[in-house]
Design brief:
This protein is α+β, with helices and mostly antiparallel strands. It is built from 12 helices and 44 strands.
């Protein structure tokens, strides 16, 4: 029988160690795994978090280990490359920071042992991801185990896979379940004992065979049916010799059918099953990626509360425990590799190995329905090398897994006729009309246009959202980072996206705020604040409840604007979200009337005099908040960019002329404004080219935008930005402007007249 020892405790850690130590270092920092060295500097802004090589060391005695033929080290996540040394000898190298890998330690074990793992998250041109809007946290941030096995065992050497592959097929009311195992050194006289259990661990079937592939028939199969009924079976496989069990593995599985229809969306077990949900990044405040099981469980509970039926697990492989929770809760999953933002010609082999690991390690999870090939990889256009990379991945996915589909997440700037949209089985787009320029009402019509152009390609929305912090206003505007604008934005997007039945899935970006150290937006640098919940999971923003009202069956009523107390207007708008048919609002105990709302959004006009206690009531449910009449706006509610190179109120404005505060869409209406934009395009290209060159001047293959194609989706998005806001956002692609540069740009804009409006 195999024995699995947890190896998380009693490691020594050293940042920027230069040599592999010969003995256990006395002066290194004592740490336990999971551990992340960017838990603080990866979330504080400045895009200056440490990226380099750090070392972990652990000593152990062989006498303390159980007697066994073979000893394998299992590392479930080390970002992004790792080298494993035992007693000074290098045993393995692994590229890919989000998947499990194993190393055979047996031949190098001594009586006293020093294990060293060198982990490197530094920039390179071959391991994904290298450019993206999130922090690439370094560390051994998931469990480390020592697996002790017999010479005859279920395979531990193939892409971190569990050694058992389960493929159910529904036939009428029954299921044929093919179970395939992968073994090492299986000898004559040794057999495999396969046992299937139901959800209550009652034994249903058993087969003893020398075959490595068998088929069970489950009569009147109990289907895995999403959140409605996430029923799971379990299959255990044991290598037996007589009465002796040499090794064993087990895996849960679910029996279900699905298809994705270009007209009717997602079909689960023959029934329409709308996929409406969220995306998730795995990091947390003060922890980075070093999460506990309790952290993962809390995330699932919050996603279940909001009523989501699907999660896009972005932009990499997530913890096996989280996939297990998705199986248990019935959430339908999009799983993907970190092939993101910029195509690296030298990174092809890494996309292949990361995809193999993703599929091999996660094949048995019934929650997963699509493999994601890439995210926003065509932002700079698609060349033949990029297309070939996608074709290779797509074909490989279908060869390795004939039960699931492939998808991509394209970005707004990707043209609807781009050839790479023809490669996967289904397509989704990342759109931010209403936040990154454009207007909220552009989203639905865009999908209508795509659907009309490609009626046979299932289309979904893989990202949409906007940022909100603790800023507030009664006049929400795009780009103000207020909780009120985020709520308005999601109200509009819910109405547009959820009403389009043909959309196979929609995923809010994002369920949680997450670390993005390059960001300097919203007054709190180092994070992307598009989450429905804060990065510490302590506060559910109002938009969270907009989705709960549409998606959850749990009765509730929620008064919006609890953090927006001081208000200057005499009559103020108050919004209530509820999944109940009718809501009544009271102000200081006096009813302001009852309202019904088919869209679950209830709006009230409330007299604002003195102190007012508000109470929203829906049947037996109620929620309370307070507002207060003030004479002047409370400046604590207004965004002031901390650490910004330049704030909007510091910009010199001249009446009738443009400035950094002007929107690009307005500037290009002027002939001189168009010329200015072309000049800015050249400036941006120079800065990007400089960032994409290595130390020797060679091109690194970084992020690029072709300004010749700066029409259509790109200009629709850019048109809604002020020049200043766009300049601050360019930090996400490592492009920055100094205060002096911005002031020079402002002077040039001050010389351009605003065109007179035609009567």
């Amino acid at each position: 029988m195999r024995t699995i020892l947890n190896f998380n405790a009693n490691w020594a850690f050293k940042k920027q160690a230069t040599d592999i130590p010969a003995a256990m270092p006395a002066d290194w920092e004592a740490v336990n795994i999971p551990h992340c060295w960017n838990a603080i500097d990866g979330q504080d802004g400045g895009n200056d978090y440490f990226r380099g090589t750090c070392h972990y060391a652990k000593s152990f005695n062989k006498a303390d280990l159980p007697e066994s033929d073979l000893y394998y080290l299992e590392i479930r996540g080390a970002n992004s490359s790792a080298d494993v040394y035992l007693n000074g000898k290098q045993l393995a190298h692994h590229d890919g920071g989000y998947s499990t890998f194993r190393v055979n330690l047996t031949d190098t074990l001594a009586e006293e042992n020093l294990l060293v793992v060198a982990v490197d998250n530094s920039e390179n041109d071959r391991v994904y991801p290298q450019m993206a809007d999130f922090t690439f946290y370094g560390g051994i941030y998931r469990d480390v185990n020592l697996i002790c096995v017999n010479n005859t065992h279920f395979d531990l050497d193939y892409y971190g896979a569990p050694g058992i592959k389960i493929t159910p097929e529904i036939v009428g009311a029954d299921a044929k379940v093919e179970v395939e195992v992968f073994t090492t050194d299986l000898k004559e006289g040794q057999n495999i004992r396969y046992t299937v259990y139901d959800k209550d661990e009652k034994q249903l079937y058993q087969i003893v065979s020398c075959d490595k592939k068998v088929t069970f028939e489950i009569k009147d199969v109990h289907l895995w049916h999403g959140r409605k009924d996430p029923y799971l079976y379990c299959c255990e496989a044991e290598i037996v010799e007589g009465e002796t069990i040499l090794d064993n593995v087990c895996s849960r599985f679910g029996c279900r059918t699905f298809k994705i229809d270009p007209e009717n969306g997602f079909i689960l077990n023959g029934e329409e099953y709308a996929l409406r949900g969220v995306s998730r990044h795995q990091d947390r405040w003060g922890k980075g990626n070093a999460l506990s099981k309790e952290d993962h469980a809390e995330d699932i509970d919050l996603i279940m509360e909001v009523g989501a039926t699907t999660i896009r697990l972005a932009h990499y492989q997530h913890d096996q425990y989280f996939y297990d929770l998705c199986d248990e809760k019935g959430l339908v999953i999009w799983a993907e590799i970190p092939y993101i933002s910029k195509h690296m010609p030298k990174g092809r082999e890494n996309t292949i190995s990361q995809m193999k690991e993703l599929i091999c390690q996660n094949y048995n999870h019934p929650s997963i329905v699509v493999w994601g090939l890439s995210n926003e990889i065509g932002i700079g256009g698609s060349d033949e090398d990029l297309l070939e990379n996608h074709r290779i991945l797509n074909d490989m996915c279908h060869e390795m897994d004939k039960t699931r589909l492939t998808t991509i997440a394209a970005v707004s700037m990707c043209k609807m006729d781009d050839p790479y949209l023809q490669i996967p089985d289904v397509v989704s787009y990342n759109h931010y009309f209403g936040w990154y320029g454009g207007d909220t009402d552009m989203n639905g019509p865009w999908f209508d246009k795509f659907h009309a152009m490609h009626p046979n390609i299932p289309i979904g929305c893989s990202e949409y959202g906007c940022e909100a912090l603790n800023w507030h206003t009664s006049d929400p505007r795009q780009g103000d980072y207020t909780e009120e604008y985020q709520a308005y934005y999601h109200e509009e997007l819910i109405k547009q996206l959820f009403s389009r039945k043909f959309m196979w899935a929609t995923h809010v970006w994002n369920m949680f705020d997450f670390g993005a150290d390059a960001r300097s937006e919203g007054g709190e640098n180092g994070q992307n604040h598009k989450g429905l919940v804060t990065i510490d999971r302590k506060y559910k923003k109002d938009a969270f409840y907009a989705y709960k009202a549409w998606l959850s069956d749990e009765p509730f009523v929620h008064l919006c604007g609890k953090r927006y107390v001081d208000r200057v207007e005499d009559v103020t708008k108050v919004t209530v979200y509820s999944n109940q048919p009718e809501v009544e609002l009271f102000a200081n105990g006096v009813s302001l009337g009852k309202k019904t709302a088919e869209n679950h959004f209830f709006y009230f006009e409330v007299p604002n005099v003195g102190e007012t206690k508000l109470e929203a009531v829906a049947g037996d449910l109620h929620d309370e908040s307070n507002i207060r009449k003030v004479d002047t706006f409370n400046e604590e509610y207004r965004l002031v960019e901390k650490g910004a190179v330049l704030n909007w109120f510091d910009v010199v404005e001249i009446e009738g002329r443009f400035s950094l505060n002007s929107k690009i869409g307005d500037i290009v209406k002027s002939p001189f404004g168009k010329l200015w934009l072309l000049g800015m395009g050249l400036t941006l290209k120079k800065k990007m080219d400089a960032n994409n060159k290595g130390k020797g001047g060679e091109k690194k293959g970084g992020f690029e935008i072709n300004m010749k194609d700066a029409g259509g989706g790109l200009m629709d998005m850019m048109g809604g930005f002020s020049v200043l806001r766009l300049s601050s956002m360019l930090g996400m692609v490592n492009v920055s402007f100094t205060k002096e540069e911005l002031l020079k740009i402002n002077k040039k804009l001050n010389r351009i007249r605003v065109p007179k409006k035609k009567k």
